[in-house]
Design goal:
The protein has three helices and four strands, in the order H-H-H-E-E-E-E. A four-stranded antiparallel beta sheet has the order 1-2-3-4, with helices on one face. It is of the alpha+beta class. It has one domain.
Length: 103
């Protein structure tokens, strides 16, 4: 009985590790810290928005793409690292669904 339980626990643990890629999680946490550090810099905020904004809710979307919100709207941030430099592209995220008759 105990041997069967051990085998079952090992199989469940292996399944869990297959479903959750630990390398991806580590990269995600490191990237999130990088984005938080970047967006906490007042010079960067001034350059992006032209005024000081309170940034909240930073979420990873994919590898180098992040979503964050201000009081007014939501933004998408693309981070690109090349030769020790960081290039960031910020896009305003707007959702607009209209009624169209074109199919």
């Amino acid at each position: 009985m105990r041997k069967g339980l051990k085998v079952l626990l090992i199989l469940l643990g292996m399944f869990f590790l297959l479903c959750i890629d630990p390398i991806e999680r580590i990269n995600e946490m490191g990237g999130r810290r990088e984005v938080e550090r970047l967006l906490s810099d007042p010079v960067v905020i001034e350059e992006i928005f032209g005024a000081e904004k309170d940034i909240k809710n930073i979420r990873p979307i994919s590898g180098t793409t992040y979503s964050f919100e201000t009081k007014d709207t939501q933004f998408i941030l693309l981070l690109q690292k090349e030769n020790g430099r960081i290039q960031n592209d910020v896009f305003e995220h707007k959702i607009r669904v209209g009624n169209t008759n074109r199919y």
